[in-house]
Design a protein that fits this description.
The protein has 85 residues and is an all-alpha fold. The protein is 92% helix and 0% strand.
């Protein structure tokens, strides 16, 4: 009886540890994906800031370009809002 209880207990402990390891791998994968997304969005925000700064410096911006500039600024605000969370 003691050996059977020990074997069952060992099996339960092994299953528990495997479950913990699987959960840890899942968390690490999720963290990696989130970090990649944050880095990608930060790069995109930097590119938008640069593009917006260049276009704001242009004299005599056409109405079409002004609409694009307004859209880019709104996109930047949205990205920055996500990054600030």
């Amino acid at each position: 009886m003691n050996q059977i209880g020990l074997v069952a207990s060992d099996a339960e402990e092994l299953a528990r540890r495997r479950g913990l390891a699987a959960a840890r791998r899942t968390r690490e994968t999720e963290r990696t994906l989130l970090l990649r997304k944050l880095v990608r969005l930060e790069r995109q925000a930097d590119q938008l800031r640069g593009w917006i700064a260049q276009r704001k410096a242009d004299v005599g911006v056409s109405p079409e370009m002004q609409r694009m500039l307004d859209w880019a600024m709104a996109e930047l605000v949205e990205i920055e809002g996500f990054l600030d969370l």
